[in-house]
Structures are given as structure tokens and as C-alpha cells.
């Protein structure tokens, strides 16, 4: 029992220590925001291109690694927004599915239009 308590206490202390260190690092970037789905898609496309260009080099310099590190913040912001929007999109599609299954034409049309409106922002 003492070993388990010690292990849990140690893990908590390590987690807390890592959290404090992360908060104390002022040199980190925030990246470009992705407040809308359109912004997220644009940032995701643009910054994946930048990442691909850097990774295509035969060798990465320290400056290249710094650039990769910096641009990942924007990609993380974009992915966070995309994940939230696509989760909501999946819920909307499920509403279309259930409505169509139950013969509810009105809901199928309404939710289907909502689904397509969002989906068209992600793909052309």
C-alpha cells in the first residue's frame, strides 16, 4: 500500500512540475488563430505546405527545426478547430441519417442543408 501511495504521489508531483515548467516558458509561440472553420482550413493547408517544404530538405538545420517548431503551433490550432467542427458535422450527419431513416423529410432537408454548408467549407 505504501508503494502505491508513493507512486501516485510521485506521479502527481512530476505532472505538477511539468505543468509549472510549461507555464514558465515564455519563449513559446501561440501560432495563428483558427477561430472559424474557414480560417482553420486555410491555416491547415498553408502550414502543411510550409512543413512539407521544410521536411523535403536533405538535412534540417537548427533554423529549420526552429521553423518547424514554430509552425506546429498554428497547425495545432487549426487541428483543434477542425476536430471540433468535424465532430459537430458528424452529429449533423447523424441527424440527417436518422431523419431520413424515419421518413422525416423536413428534418432531412434542413439538417442536410446544414451538413452540406459546413462540409463544403472543408472540401470543394
Automatic annotation (TrEMBL):
The source's domain of life comes to Bacteria
Which intervals of the chain form a coiled coil? Answer: 72-99
Species lineage: Bacteria, Pseudomonadati, Pseudomonadota, Betaproteobacteria, Nitrosomonadales
Pfam families noted in UniProt: DUF6746 (PF20531)
Identify the InterPro entries for this entry: DUF6746
Where would one find the signal peptide in this protein?
Answer: 1-22
Tell me which species this is from: Nitrosomonas nitrosa
Q: Which UniProt keywords apply?
A: Coiled coil, Signal
Identify this protein by name: Soluble cytochrome b562
Amino acid at each position: 500500500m505504501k508503494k502505491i501511495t508513493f507512486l501516485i504521489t510521485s506521479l502527481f508531483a512530476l505532472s505538477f512540475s511539468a505543468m509549472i515548467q510549461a507555464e514558465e516558458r515564455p519563449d513559446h509561440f501561440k501560432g495563428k488563430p483558427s477561430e472559424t472553420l474557414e480560417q482553420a482550413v486555410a491555416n491547415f493547408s498553408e502550414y502543411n505546405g510550409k512543413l512539407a517544404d521544410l521536411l523535403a530538405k536533405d538535412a534540417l538545420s537548427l533554423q529549420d527545426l526552429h521553423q518547424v517548431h514554430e509552425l506546429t503551433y498554428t497547425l495545432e490550432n487549426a487541428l483543434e478547430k477542425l476536430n471540433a467542427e468535424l465532430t459537430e458535422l458528424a452529429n449533423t450527419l447523424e441527424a440527417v441519417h436518422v431523419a431520413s431513416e424515419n421518413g422525416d423529410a423536413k428534418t432531412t432537408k434542413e439538417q442536410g442543408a446544414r451538413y452540406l454548408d459546413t462540409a463544403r467549407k472543408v472540401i470543394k
